[in-house]
TrEMBL record:
Biased composition (Low complexity): 146-155
Localization: Cytoplasm, Cytosol
The keyword Cytoplasm is annotated on this UniProt entry: yes
Secretion signal, residue range per the UniProt entry: none
This protein's name: Ubiquitin-like protein
Residues annotated as transmembrane: none
InterPro entries given in the database record: Ubiquitin-like_dom, Ubiquitin-like_domsf, UBL4A-like
One Gene Ontology cellular component annotation held by this UniProt entry: BAT3 complex
UniProt xrefs under PROSITE patterns: UBIQUITIN_2 (PS50053)
GO MF entry, a single one: protein-folding chaperone binding
Highest taxon, organism lineage: Eukaryota
Natural source organism: Favolaschia claudopus
Statement: the UniProt record of this protein carries the keyword Cytoplasm: yes
Length: 297
């Protein structure tokens, strides 16, 4: 019985010890026999990098391209050699800009067989672009700043600046003389009427104050009224005839191969002439020609 009691005590004691967490000191080191063995790393010697052969260098030189870039307006031609297939289209534009009288990069557009060349793509991405080919160079118009005012050599004073042009919003106000020279420009001059509202004191019982209309016109004082009235009337009469627009549509259909292009050109002409046409005249023109515009009008 005594031996069984000791065995039971040892079992309970061991179970109690195994349930307690183990705490190691800061300088604890695991015995070497319990550590994992390190896998040895073999030192493999690497061969030296290969030397580029002369044949490979000659083949690389032979793979370069020579292209010619031609522009029609204005007439210009640029020839670039030693173009690597890994060069980008943007780098070609930069080389063209570095040539004598070369256009800036922003004004250049490269076309090859009717297809535009993207700046971000490489030359080798266009397999049909071979050495000796000619690439079309289209120059986009660039904006130029106004020139500085001229100086008078005698008294070193600036010449008088040009007379400013009055405008309302985005529509310039022109005189009758300018309207005669350019009959398609906007000639209606708006007027502004200022009507002061009566004060609160007058509304209380005193007689209402008289309202005065002040009309402000933006006519040019240098223009003579009625100078181009006859010319504008004959121009408007011809422009308001539906037969004129019907003949214009027939001419555009014979000039453009695609009917959609002819209708677009006809619409552009009509929109440019709407400043001198009324809504009823535009409706008669569209009914006669059978061309509907925005919202079916």
């Amino acid at each position: 019985m005594a031996e069984q009691a000791e065995v039971a005590f040892l079992r309970v004691y061991l179970n109690t010890l195994s349930s307690q967490p183990l705490t190691y000191n800061d300088n604890y080191q695991q015995p070497p026999q319990n550590s994992l063995k390190k896998v040895p790393v073999l030192q493999i010697s690497l061969p030296p990098p290969p030397v580029r052969a002369a044949a490979a260098a000659a083949a690389d030189t032979a793979s370069t391209l020579t292209l010619t870039f031609k522009s029609l307006k204005p007439a210009a031609s640029f020839s670039l050699s030693a173009i690597h297939p890994a060069d980008s289209i943007l780098s070609l534009k930069q080389r063209i800009a570095a040539e004598p009288n070369g256009p800036p990069v922003s004004a250049q557009r490269l076309l090859f067989k009717g297809k535009a060349l993207a700046d971000a793509k490489l030359v080798k991405e266009y397999p049909n672009l071979l050495s000796g080919e000619t690439v079309n160079l289209v120059l986009k118009p660039t904006t130029t700043t106004d020139a500085a005012p001229a100086m008078d050599n005698n008294n070193s004073n600036t010449l008088p600046a040009p007379k400013p042009t009055l405008s309302i919003g985005d529509r310039p106000v022109v005189s009758a003389a300018e309207a005669a020279a350019h009959p398609r420009r906007h000639t209606r001059i708006p007027s502004v009427v200022l009507s002061p509202s009566p004060s609160h004191d007058n509304a209380a019982g005193s007689p209402a104050a008289s309202v005065t209309d002040i009309t402000l016109t933006l006519d040019n004082i240098d223009a003579e009224p009625g100078l181009a009235a006859a010319e504008l009337s004959t121009y408007h009469e011809k422009l308001a005839e539906p037969e004129f627009w019907e003949a214009l549509l027939v001419f555009l259909n014979s000039s453009f191969p695609a009917p959609a292009d002819a209708a677009r050109a006809w619409e552009d002409f009509l929109r440019a002439s709407k400043n001198t046409l009324t809504a009823s005249e535009v409706a008669r023109i569209r009914d006669r020609c059978g061309v509907s515009g925005m919202a079916g009008t």
